[in-house]
Amino acid sequence: MSKIARLLLIAVFLIVAIGPVAAQGPVEIVFWHMEQPPHRVARVQELLDEFNAAHPDIVVRQEPQNWGEIYTKAPAAVAAGNAPDMLFAIPDFTPIIRAVGAVQPVDDFVAEMNEAHGFFPAAIEPYSYEDHVWAVPLWNMAHSLWYRKSVFAEAGVEPPTTWDEWLAAVQTLTTDTQYGIGLPANRHLYTDQTTYDFMINAGASEIYNPDGTLRFNNEATVAAFDFYKQLYQYSPPDSPNWTWGEAEACFASRTCASILQFTVITTYDTQAEGDPEDLGVMAIPHSADVEQSGTIAYVNGVMVLTDDPAKQEAIYTFLRFLLEPENYGRFLNMEPGLFLPVTESGSQAASYWEDPMVVKYKSQIEVMLENSRNGMLFGFTGGNIFPSIAQISAQNLLAQTLQKVLIDNMDPAEAVAEGQALMEEAIED
Amino acid sequence: MTNATPTTTGRARTGLLAGRFRRPAGDTLLGYLLVAPLILWLAGTILYPLLSAIRLSFLDVGIIGTGGQFVGLENYSKVLGSDNFWEAFGRSLVWVVANAVLQTLAAFITALILKQRFRGQGLARVWVILSWIVPTVVVVIIWRWLLGTSGGIVNYLLVTLGITPQPVGFFGTGPTARTSVIFINSWRWFPLMAVILLAGMQSIPEELYEAASVDGASAWQRFWHITMPGLQAVLFVMGLVGMLWSINVFDIIWLLTRGGPSAATTTLPVFIYDTAFFKYRLSRSAAASVVLGLVLLAFAVLYTRVMAPRAEEEQG
Fold first, then answer.
1. Most CB contacts within 10 A, which of A424, B18, B21, B91?
2. Are A148 and A280 in contact (CB under 8 A)?
3. Could you list the residue range(s) of the whole structural domain that residue B274 is in?
């Protein structure tokens, strides 16, 4: 072997041996979330900057996405090898990413955090199936009925608790310039949510039987769709095109006397009167067949996608930081009054309750928290959790069924039967 | 003048053939090399996705990124046997015809007006093209605001002027949503057609109109016997390209209605997207895409054979 060849060999050896050591820098974590409004991105960045400064060996970077695209984009990114290391989730999104083989179980870490901060049991349940926990719960969101106390008082309407009272109230509140209620009828997640609110309050919260077959087609579901139709006639005529924003705009502009929504606090405070004394919030009224009001509740979490142990450890370090009470409240208050705590320590954290907006609307947030305790999510109830709910949810089949009643004027019983057939077709594979 | 064209063309052809025989091998190679990047680019961006879609249509892939087994023609059978597919197909036909009629009418009227000489003609020509320049998402936001029931100006006027007792849900029922979406899409695209027609009209010699006027032809006769024949080539291209564009429109429909309410505005592209990314039937969606591609190909061939202006017609 010539001298030059030997030198070259040594050089190659050195590059291979030392290169990775020399190149080793901080562990970089990319996470995708779907909290796009600029003030939410800014709050997340504030926390990231603090974390990154305190952990020079880790760099966490956010890449905001939107809910409208994520069901398409995330599986494609996984397939292309460009998936983020962490991805925020709602329970029915997780099975889709699991189907492309990217989600790592987080049982041990969730147990550790449960020990440290005390997760509310309902927070872990929607992510626990097939012997593992698939996401770390981060916050909860629950629907309530929002209204203006002065508008109700002027119309002589008391906040309703039952469906009969609710229908009468909505009829009274409807005038030439005001709709009694704003209810969506779009084929959209928002409509799925409001539809499920009615189903819960009609006693039709279970979609699955324990054996995984569907039990959507039942009398209670039909009653829920029928009552939705009765209220819908007092809703604006463009509500078949609504998402959450249009409903909030309708309420803020006083076109709608009441709406079902996770929160209206920010919109009401910045684009309407902003009078905390006049903003009313209450549990969603229930039918005579049900004893207690319930609501849809979404526990949002974060999935770990990377299988690199170093990155996983860095992610856990970051999540430990985030769930610490002094940080957790600030994290939740990226949208004050929308994101509710899922841990005992978080629900008592000063960082949560001392936010100026939370102080201002404290009574409303306390009602929201109370409502969220009776929250449930379609397909994740009663221990009957089946990943196929992802297909039903992604296609907005609750909303599609509702459209058959509201837009196509189909009899509710017939529509619900067709809805179940659509669900069975959706989960056939 | 009519004799000159064949002579020139013939001479050019002779020269071209002669040139080809004499061209050195190096020149030919250089030519291929220069064209190669474009060919590769087209192969990578059109041919490869096309072949991938065809391959995908014979598999049973659900979610993008997952694997699939060969299932032969099963996806085609399911697509062609699906009521939803044929309903979407029917809506696509209505969509194309309605858009073609509306846009052509609006474009002709606009082009004829813009062809006249008047003060502010230049400004008017720029102004009319604005709706086409504005990005689709902005168009959608504008129209959703205008037509909304919470503060929308159209509903405000309708109610204030007593035209309707209540605000109209323009996207609230099937017929109103279909009409609204067609109207908005036509509003967006007719300026482009108007500009093309205007360019075509301006290429018609003014002497023909002057001669016809001297002979006592009315405005309608001048339009029908001079303008229309003069625009035949332009109309042929606009018809073909416009139909193909129109049937493939997805963005404006999706952003306005997401194909609703109750599928009332679900045309084939919306159906295909929905099948792939909401129903998670990627292969079935690919099969529907291939079927649509074949339909468009058949339409293009038929249209070209039947509607292509003959050479003597083009030369007047």
1. B91
2. yes
3. 84-314
Cα–Cα distance, A176 to B278 (Å, whole number) = 39
CB contact under 8 A, A100 and B65: yes
For residue B278, the model assigns a pLDDT of 85
Q: Which residues in chain B touch residue A394, judged by CB atoms under 8 angstroms apart? A: 278-280
Count Cα atoms within 13 angstroms, Cβ side, for A242: 31
Q: Does B261 touch chain A (CB under 8 A)?
A: yes
Model pLDDT for residues A312-364, shown as the tens digit of each residue: 999 999 999 999 999 999 999 998 888 999 999 999 999 999 999 999 999 99
Buried b (16+ CB within 10 A) or exposed e, A174-203: beeeebbbbbbbbbbbbbbbbbbbbbbbbb
Question: Which alpha helices (DSSP H) does A201-264 contain, by range?
Answer: 219-232, 244-252
Fold classified for A143-293+377-426: D-Maltodextrin-Binding Protein; domain 2 (3.40.190)
Q: Is B150 domain-assigned?
A: yes
Query: Are the C-beta atoms of B262 and A404 separated by less than 8 Å?
Result: yes
| d(CA A134, nearest CA chain B) in Å | 19
Please give the pLDDT value at position A7: 58
> Chain A: residue nearest B274 by CA?
A395
Residue at token pair 């449930």: A376
Judge: A240–B169 Cβ closer than 8 Å, yes or no: yes
Residue A201 has pLDDT above 90, yes or no: yes
Mutation pick from A251, A407, A409, A418 vs chain B, by most beta carbons of B within 10 Å, is A407
Token pair belonging to A99:
């189907």
| The model's pTM | 0.81
**Confidence check: pLDDT of B280 > 50:** yes
Alpha carbon separation from B270 to A74, A386, B123, B258 (Å, rounded): 20, 29, 37, 8
Contact B167 A237 (CB under 8 A): yes
Span B135-171, pLDDT tens digits = 999 999 999 989 988 778 999 999 999 999 888 999 9
Structural domain contains residue B6: no
Measuring CA to CA, which residue among B154, B150, B151, B162 is closest to residue B183? B154
Strands A384-385 and A86-89, sheet pairing: unpaired
Query: Is residue B59 domain-resident?
Result: no
Element at A48 (helix H, strand E): helix A38-54
Task: Report d(CA A351, CA A330) in Å as an integer.
Answer: 6
pLDDT for the residue B300: 94
Cα dihedral A16→A21→A27→A30 (10° resolution): -30
Whether residue A237 and residue B149 make contact (CB cut-off 8 A), yes or no, is yes
CATH class of A26-141+297-372: alpha beta
User: For residues A62 and A352, is the Cβ–Cβ distance under 8 A?
Assistant: no
> What one-character-per-residue DSSP string does chain B give?
-TTHHHHHHHHHHHHHHHHHHH--HHHHHHHHHHHHHHHHHHIIIIIHHHHHHHHHTTB---STTS---B-TTHHHHHHHT-HHHHHHHHHHHHHHHHHHHHHHHHHHHHHHHHHS--TTHHHHHHHHHHHHHS-HHHHHHHHHHHH-SSS-HHHHHHHHTTS-SS---TTTSHHHHHHHHHHHHHHHHHHHHHHHHHHHHHTS-HHHHHHHHHTT--HHHHIIIIIHHHTHHHHHHHHHHHHHHHHT--HHHHHHHTT-STTTT--HHHHHHHHHHTS--HHHHHHHHHHHHHHHHHHHHHHHHHHPPPHHHHT-
How do the domains of chain A map onto residue ranges? 26-141+297-372, 143-293+377-426
The residue whose two tokens read 């955090």 is A113
> From the CA atom positions of chain B, what is the Rg in Å?
25
Total domains, chain B: 1
Question: Nearest-CA residue of chain B relative to A395?
Answer: B278
Judge whether A72 is closer than 8 Å to chain B, CB to CB: yes
Q: Is residue B266 part of a domain?
A: yes
How close A33 comes to chain B (CA, Å)? Answer: 19
